[in-house]
Amino acid sequence: MRIEDALYQCLQNEVYPVYKIQAPQNTPMSYALFYVVADTKVNCADGQDVDFVDVRFTIDVYDTTLPGVKDMSDEIQSKLRECDTFSAIIYQTIDDMPDNINYRSIIDFKLNKRG
Q1: Using H for helix, E for strand and C for coil, what is the string for the chain?
Q2: Burial class (CB in 10 A: 0-12, 13-18, 19+), 99
Q3: CA distance 7 to 111
Q4: pTM of the full predicted structure?
Q5: pLDDT for 13-65, tens place per residue?
Q6: Could you give the CA distance from residue 5 to residue 9 in angstroms, rounded to a whole number?
Q7: Nearest-angstrom CA–CA distance, 90 and 54
Q8: For residues 43 and 53, is the Cβ–Cβ distance under 8 A?
Q9: Domain layout of the chain by residue ranges
Q10: For the structural domain made of 3-113, what CATH number should be given?
Q11: Cα separations (Å) of 3 from 33, 82, 104, 113?
């Protein structure tokens, strides 16, 4: 399993949706997006298998209220620390100013695959 797929599974929940790269059009403003910022890949000798070993991600968390975005950001950071597939190093979180009527929190972190 690729590490970004493991991250996607780890972040799934019933409270808010999580999307890779872009949310579908007209998605209610309470969701998270994640995408790869940088990665280190390992190729097998036959050149067929490629997997991520170290991956730096960003998760953008959106909500209509500042408390809502902070709660979602805190929950996502807890999930990152609890996942069995990888270990997460969270570099920083930034709570952004309102963009129109919405709030955003940015979580910048690196994952290392376990085992």
Answers
A1: CCHHHHHHHHHCCCCCCEEECCCCCCCCCCEEEEEEEEEEEEECCCCCCEEEEEEEEEEEEEECCHHHHHHHHHHHHHHHHHCCCEEEEEEEEEEEEEECCEEEEEEEEEEEECC
A2: exposed
A3: 9
A4: 0.78
A5: 767 888 988 889 988 888 999 888 887 666 666 655 555 567 788 899 999 88
A6: 6
A7: 13
A8: no
A9: 3-113
A10: 3.30.2000.10
A11: 16, 15, 25, 7
The sign of the torsion formed by the CA atoms of 60, 63, 66, 71 equals negative
How many whole angstroms separate alpha carbon 113 and alpha carbon 54? 7
- Asked if 62 contacts 30 with a C-beta cutoff of 8 angstroms, the reply is yes
Token pair listed for 27 = 């998605």
The three-point CA angle 89-92-94 to 5° equals 145
